[in-house]
Amino acid sequence: MPLTKEEIKGLGKKAWDIRKLIVETTFTCGGSHLGGSLSQTDVLVALYWKYMNIDPSNPAWEDRDRFILSKGHGGVGWAAVLGEKGYFDKDLLKNFNKTGSPFGMHLDSLKVKGCDASTGSLGHGLAIAVGLAIGAKMKKKSYRTYCMVGDGELCEGTNWEAAIIATHHKLDNLTLFVDRNKFMIDGPTEDITSLEPIDAKFQAFGWETITIDGHDFAQIGDAIEKAQANKGKPTVIICNTIKGKGVELFENKSQWHYGGINSDLKEQALACLDKFYCEL
Amino acid sequence: MAEGMSWSVTDGDKLTQAEIYGEVLAQLGDKYSNIVAITADLASSTKIGRFGKKFPAQFINVGIAENTMFGMAAGLAQSGMLPVVSTMAAFASLRSAEQVRTDICYQKLNVKIIATHAGISFGQAGSTHHCTEDLAVMRSFPNMTVIAPADGFETGNAVVAAMEIDGPVYIRIGRGFEPPVYKTQDYDYKIGKAIKMRDGKDITLIACGVGVLQSMRAAEVLKSQGLEARVINMHTIKPIDKDAILEAVTETRRIITVEDHSIMGGLGSAVAEVIVESGKACAFKRLGVPDVFAIVGYPEDLYHYYKFDADGIVETVGALLKMEIEEDENWEDEA
User: Fold this and answer.
1) pTM above 0.80?
2) For range B130-151, the mean pLDDT
3) Cβ B107–A136 below 8 Å, yes or no?
4) Out of A33-42, A56-65, B89-98, B319-328, which region has the weakest mean confidence (pLDDT)?
5) Measuring CA to CA, which residue among B57, B47, B54, B137 is closest to residue B101?
6) What DSSP string describes B193-213?
7) Is A132 within 8 Å of B107 when comparing Cβ atoms?
8) In this complex, do B60 and A134 lie within 8 Å of one another by their Cβ atoms?
9) DSSP state of A254
10) Cα–Cα distance between A133 and B36 in angstroms, integer?
11) Interface touch B79/A136, C-beta < 8 Å
């Protein structure tokens, strides 16, 4: 069932809340991975508020759907999602990155409720997700495993090892999102080590591929529903996104891969977000 | 070179000991229904394939993709399965070190790693397949239990005992052709508790893995020379049995460690740390592979070459006995 206009509006509002929380947290903590957190937000919002079978009051529920943010540097954005979803009091995010805080910039599954794997070292998440998906089949569980990698992260060869194995095991309970924001720390992916054609590469590895605008909830919803309906193979959803999406002064700028903001910049960013929300 | 190459790869009829691990694991499948055995194209070489033959639905061969294999093991453990992973020690400890550390150890996941071909037990294969660093690497990972069994029976015991621990365990074995030290599996085996193989007051040989057999052989030679060597099988490198070490320091004042591993960072280093932190002086020598990439050859020849076979141990005992140490037990007058 395609998302209704009302649902899309609701998800848009939630994404706006999350983006504001990311900006606020970045201001408080002194610096975060703004660009990738803002680019991934809409897909995460769709998953957590519409498609994943989860219970924030019971984060260890055995039958829950799993989500692994392999691009662990999106941690501040993921934490904002988990806090907003009610896994913990989102006021705790005021301690993000602070000494002794449960929240480092890469989330820790031992310390953060709702975080299914400690990630940050790139190229690890998909293998863990493959293990979870095979585990579900072995235990005859119907939960689904979702994983998101950054596009630059696809340079890591372990992704392709895991992609081969996922196909061999016919992991139709596994969905991978590529946050295709086209930047890595040092600049545009296609300038540093080109990744295209990403879809043809995954197709060659035996995956079902869907390419979407990763900020369009209707497309995100349709893609996830297609992935859920696919049989016999894993699905990758290549999400064309904008690094820093929603805050114009951060968009498509490498320097905002990671950065700190002062109160002036914070106010500018929040004003950008308000404008962005009005245009939704 | 070494006395008789009686048990090297040319001698296939003594494989039984090597296959104990595979058999034990296959038996454990009846007790632990959630075991999933995983390997990276080494089902036969590592013997984990025996489990796969009995429980094909709980066996995964990922192909040649060790890093992903360990990440998958983390995911499988998180989903409630009990992954047992086997590959060669060089790949488990070096190639996949980060996956083992971050994906498995950090989250204290219940993954058992049985790494084969450790040390220079696959000496003919050359430096890419030698693994004289795994104990150093693995014991530096928090939450990891590190075991180097003396023989096939002990490997079986270690695998059984590892299942009782909730967390990652690294068991390193040789190529699988090592002769037995024990006659049976029925002895008091406990992870973290060293075994005194023979008592003695003149010197202590603390060994793990194939070093235990070599130490026992050396002790026999020493006995003929009128020396009583204590032999301690320190099968668990981490957590190490400090009491057994400190008892040996006090009672024998001379200690030699014997291991098929670099002398940097393995059993010898672990024992040295305990001795030095005790504040008690002790004549001490580490035997193993020195700080080099080992030469190629049959394992027993290499053990001889690097002087951690019985001959080398006896020679080192002689040197250590000549070392001047304070003979009384009054520790108070020492700096």
Assistant:
1) yes
2) 97
3) no
4) B319-328
5) B137
6) B-EEEE--SSEEEEE-THHHH
7) no
8) yes
9) G
10) 14
11) yes
Is B13 a residue whose pLDDT tops 50? Answer: no
Closest CA to A206 of A244, A246, A162, A245: A162
Note whether B70 contacts A117, CB cutoff 8 Å: no
> Residue with structure tokens 């006659």?
B183
- Residue of A63, A67, A111, A124 to mutate, interface with B, max B Cβ within 10 Å: A124
- As a whole number, mean pLDDT of residues A270-275 equals 92
CA distance B203 to B322: 12
| pLDDT tens profile A204-226 | 999 999 999 999 999 999 999 99
Lowest-confidence region among B13-17, B211-215, B324-328: B13-17
B142 touches chain A (CB under 8 A): no
- The answer to whether B3 faces chain A, any CB pair under 8 Å, is no
Question: pLDDT per residue over B237-273, tens digit each?
Answer: 999 999 999 999 999 999 999 999 999 999 999 999 9
pLDDT confidence of B47, banded at 50, 70, 90? Answer: confident
According to the model, what pLDDT value does residue B9 have? 39
Cβ-Cβ contacts under 8 Å, A66 against chain B: 78
pLDDT surpasses 50 at B54: yes
**Cα dist from B1 to A268, B287, B302, whole Å:** 78, 18, 9
Three-state SS string across B38-69, please?
EECCCCCCCCCHHHHHHCHHHEEECCCCHHHH
B111 near B83, Cβ under 8 Å? yes
Nearest to A177, CA basis, from A206, A145, A216: A145
Q: How far apart are CA B171 and CA B86, in angstroms?
A: 10
Rg (CA), chain A: 17
- Which residue in this structure is represented by tokens 């039958």? A63
Beta bridge partners of A145: A66, A174
Residue pair B120/B289 in contact by the 8 Å Cβ criterion: yes
pLDDT confidence of B130, banded at 50, 70, 90?
very high
Give the model's pLDDT for residue B330.
66
Q: Does B87 touch chain A (CB under 8 A)?
A: no
Please name the residue that has the structure tokens 């086209």. A182
